[in-house]
Target: Multidrug effflux MFS transporter
Amino acid sequence: MAKSKSFFLILILGCLAALAPFSIDMYLPGFKAIALDLNTDVPKVSLSLSTFFIGISVGQLLYGPLLDKFGRKKPLYFGLSLYILSSICCLLVTSIDQLIVLRFIQAIGCCAASVAAIAMVRDLFTVEESPKVFASLMLVIAVSPMLAPTGGGYLITALGWQSVFVFLGLVAILMLLASIWWLPESYKPDPHYSLKPKPILSNFLIVLKEPSFYTYALISAVTFSGLFAYVSSSPVVFMDLYKVTETGYGWIFALLSVFFIGFSQVNSYILKWFTSKEIVFWALIIQSIFSILFLIAAVYNLLNLYTTITFIALFLGCLGFINPNASALSLAPFSKNAGSASALMGALQMGLGALASAVISMFAADVIWPMPAVMTIAALIALFCLFIGGRKIKTNINNL
Model:
């Protein structure tokens, strides 16, 4: 494949994969404005984030079989069209309940983009090329949390919170046109592929019975719920409690994203001296200690803006070590069912993330302790999963 054509193709796939994180992060600075406009409070607005996580979780399980049954492009067209329609409807909402429902529908739509992008990388590139392509996609996804809230903050300040959904809808239209004109159909539809629940569920059950999967996938998903607790409560914490502006919040969110991205890149170098299992163990220990200290400081009102940012940065830094290693260890035993395992792990992450953000929304908007409380619980449960599940893991991944 020519380099210029390959670059353009990877750029389109990267933009498709980044649609979901952009949709999550870009409207976060608008929580306060949405609450004022729709006569509600910020915790209730954060439920629209919870339903988005649920939609992503359900969608990952839904689109996998559809992409194998109908090819890559038809489900992608459907998903992007659904996303565009729901984005338009978000402009017309008159109550927070309508926005909560529409964000779920929007998530179902945008999930097609990320799942199709990953599947098309496997289809269009060789085994030798795929790791580099995936690295390029991950870079685009990783950069989006730095750009989305900052750009969203400026848009909301200038044009109001509805402008975010106008922007996202226009981006999705461009992606749909690019997919129609420039993306090849990379997979021949399989009319014999069964969409019946029994064979699909049987594949998931095979995955769930593997000790390495349920141990490390749970660790990855539970610790990720701490990340989602931060994401859903950060508008309240920074803009309501610490009186940070929308644009200031965007810059803080971008700064904290650097810690997660940066430590995940440092992880690649540390693997030269330590195994994935060792890194996960020590990162969980350190994350648990920092989370407990964060919670104690919150309960006794010892926090300010800068100490809060520091504790969150330390939690996210540890997560940057935990997530890539736990993901690799959970998928290591699989060859035939790697797709099912990947979808199940992603659904588990988003499902627990939705639960964490829903829990956060139940508390009053004038306290900070629910965020470190969820982070602490997540870190300790993950550590417990490692101690219990680690005893049953097969020895064939000891060298990872």
Q: What stands out?
A: The longest helix spans residues 211-241. The chain is about 80% helix and 0% strand. The radius of gyration is 21 Å.
